[in-house]
Amino acid sequence: MRLLQSITGQCRPALRALGRRYFAAATTEEYAKRNYANNLSEYNSVFNSLTAQRKHFLLRDAYEDMMLDGVQPDQDTFRSLILGTLKGSSLQDAFFFADQMKSMGLAPDVNMYNILITLCGKCKHSDQAIQILEDMKNYKVSPKVQTYMCLLNACAATGRLDRVYAIVRDMTAAGLGLNRFCYAGLVTALRNKTPLPDEFGTKIVEFVERSKEWSSVDGSSMTAENVMMGVTEEELYNMPTAEYSHRGGFLNRQLTVYHAAFHACADLRNVEVMEALREMLAKDGKVPDLFIVLQIMRCYLQSGDIDRGVQTFEDYMKSGKPPVVELYTTLVEGAMTGYTPKGMKIAEETLVNMNSRSFFLSPKMGSDLLLAAAGDETGGYSVANYIWDLMDARKIVPQFLSVEAYYKGLKKREIPEDDPRLQHVTKTYNDLRDRRGPGRPIR
């Protein structure tokens, strides 16, 4: 694509330092190929395209290209850019674009401020989220209910239970009822608080019980603006289900608080509370959706109970519901906990089964599993080798950290230097390391 062809030129950094472009012998056609776009409409399309392709790290490059071309951005431009930073979890770029916007006399609207607050929480910077609320007052932008819910969940992400309680009190005093995302935020704040409160289990159950009151009064908090921007409520409030919120059949959105609670139990390996939640869910006449099934598997497997983790997987597969690749990857990753012979055997068998049913690893899934498998220091390394082979067969290059861990794991084993696998991995590792360059951040 033309919009990506300009990023590989080695002359770009020097030209940027000069603040202009100059191509001595370039024809008009060659010049066009080196640009992302030619006008405002095209640049706005480029920003949306980069976000859709998950190439968020190129947004600033494209924006600088736009500035060099003398194209003036508008409100829609910055809306697309700030949304892209949310999808890519790039807080530094988000503040850069917000500052650029203000310097051009364009004030962010309340929806953009909400996204900035959420991004602060996503990046574990709740203090900056509070500061954004003050910035809104300075620019006379009135916060909405959504704003306070974004702030609540941003503080929850860093375990600031005191701030979360304060926001809840303020909302209640203002006559605002708490909906499922507020209760999910309370659960998340409790899970992230350090040290973990002794009453974690009882409080989680209490929050889930109290959240049932929202059903008669709670409605969607989405605005037409959010819908237009393609932001789901789960993304806006930084729910643990955010990455699945665009996929049909994955979530029962009536179980939002249960999602947060089961996710917390899995993270903390608290089987006792998780099983209490399963009983509560059954008493409510609800069945676990796919996200909850994954958390139940994670909780059992990471707690060392491989048998019940496998049983949960098998029960789902026998239920007649459509399987997804995440079921396999969750079982594989969980079975590798502790790198026991039994767990590694189950992990390898699951990968073989997954491949036979034509489920494929995405670059991120494969990289995460390879990184985990590469940590096996005593086994035969067959799981890591198989994950590498699955990705290599589809011409997928894992992320640098995963390749580095796998390469170092191979080097620790007695493998001849002329071994084809070792040579291939070594070349891939060196290429990725050289591409990053000295001091270049890991993407």
Q: Overview of this structure, please?
A:
This protein has a domain of 106 residues. The protein is mostly helical and 443 residues long. Helix 18 packs antiparallel against helix 19. The chain contains 24 helices and no strands.
Mean pLDDT: 89
Shape, per Cα inertia axes: globular
The N- and C-terminal alpha carbons lie at a distance of 22 Å
| Major sheet | none
The assigned structural class equals mainly alpha
Integer-rounded radius of gyration: 24 Å
Proportion in helices: 55-70%
Strand content: under 5%
- The beta-strand count equals 0
Low-confidence stretches: 1-26, 439-443
Pfam families: PPR_long
Keywords: Repeat
InterPro entries: PPR_rpt, PROP1-like_PPR_dom, TPR-like_helical_dom_sf
GO cellular component, one term: mitochondrion
Write the layout of secondary structure elements.
Elements: H1 12-18, H2 28-33, H3 40-52, H4 59-68, H5 75-88, H6 91-103, H7 110-122, H8 126-138, H9 145-157, H10 161-173, H11 180-192, H12 200-211, H13 224-229, H14 233-236, H15 256-268, H16 271-283, H17 290-302, H18 306-318, H19 325-335, H20 341-356, H21 363-373, H22 382-393, H23 400-411, H24 420-436
Helix pairs in contact: 3-4, 3-5, 5-6, 5-7, 7-8, 7-9, 8-9, 9-10, 9-11, 10-11, 11-12, 11-15, 12-16, 15-16, 15-17, 17-18, 17-19, 18-19, 19-20, 20-22, 21-22, 21-23, 23-24
InterPro entries: PPR_rpt, PROP1-like_PPR_dom, TPR-like_helical_dom_sf
Protein name: Pentatricopeptide repeat-containing protein
Pfam families: PPR_long
